[in-house]
Design a protein that fits this description.
Layout lengths: L13 E9 L8 E9 L1 E3 L3 E4 L4 E4 L4 E4 L2 E4 L2 E3 L3 E5 L9 E3 L17 E7 L5 H13 L4 E3 L8 E6 L3 H13 L4 E5 L4 E5 L15 E4 L5 E5 L2 H10 L5 E3 L5
Antiparallel strand pairs: 1-2, 1-10, 2-9, 3-8, 4-5, 4-10, 6-7, 11-13, 11-14, 12-13, 15-17, 15-18, 16-17
Helix pairs in contact: 1-2
Length: 248
């Protein structure tokens, strides 16, 4: 938690979200956030504080999951892992603590995607399922999704570390969300955050560079080569870029 060390035997509760999994039970279309307890004791009806969401809450349906078995958790301790129902409020790396505590654990590093593809749904009538599936799978951390600034999700650019993740995405969208997709590979190989206050519309960029936004509307640049990165920095003196993947 920053430079502070949290002792497991501290008298306050703390935990962090390390995994999110949608559709664990296809019959219920549920989504579970997995948390590792770092300190203190968890009680089923206790009130906690979600740091990133800045809200007090009770964790819904706490359970421990072993294979297909689920067991309701009444209490848990530092080192234990619990799963809670997530309506879409949690992200990987989030911190949950006893109300009144003022810290957040360091985020979990995200690896920079190295392969990018343009993805859209075959059937335009299934846009709602497409958007839901893309967002939920992205929130699990398996893929990164980007889109044209100031545009919707009709067509997105998906970034992955390994190309097999494209096959997994296609399979899951078809089997869990009943959506068939069209996927086109793109030539981009590098991605960088724009960290300076610049008008992205006024940037002088090489023709093979693309401006995109993430789900928080942060602006990024996609490049085909390191030469294009150098071009962007040389021709835009106020532009500052940062490698993708640094945890906040």
């Amino acid at each position: 938690a920053g430079d502070q060390l949290i002792a497991p035997d501290s008298d306050f509760f703390s935990a962090f979200v390390f995994k999110i999994q949608a559709n664990m039970n296809k019959a219920h279309r549920d989504r579970v956030a997995f948390m590792r307890i770092c300190s203190g004791k968890f009680d089923k009806n206790m009130e906690v504080y979600h740091v990133q969401g800045d809200r007090k809450m009770k964790l819904s349906q706490p359970q421990q999951i072993m294979a297909q078995e689920r067991e309701v958790v009444d209490e848990a301790y530092a080192g234990d892992i619990i799963g809670v129902f997530d309506p879409g409020m949690f992200s990987i790396g989030d911190t949950i603590v006893t109300p009144g505590q003022k810290f957040a654990f360091k985020g979990i590093p995200t690896f920079a995607p190295e392969h990018f593809a343009l993805v859209r749904q075959k059937d335009t009538m299934k846009r709602k399922q497409f958007v839901k599936g893309m967002n939920q799978i992205a929130q699990e951390g398996a893929i990164q999704i980007f889109h044209e600034p100031e545009s919707g999700m009709e067509e997105v650019i998906v970034g992955v570390v390994g190309v097999l993740q494209f096959d997994v995405l296609k399979y899951r969208l078809e089997n869990e969300y009943n959506v068939e997709i069209i996927m086109e590979n793109t030539p981009y190989q590098f991605i960088r955050w724009i960290t300076s206050e610049v008008d992205y519309k006024a940037l002088d960029l090489a023709s093979d560079t693309k401006v995109v936004a993430d789900f928080r509307d942060n602006k990024l640049l996609l490049f085909r080569s390191e030469w294009s990165i150098d071009w962007a920095l040389e021709h835009n003196k106020d532009l500052a870029l940062q490698d993708f993947g640094n945890a906040e």
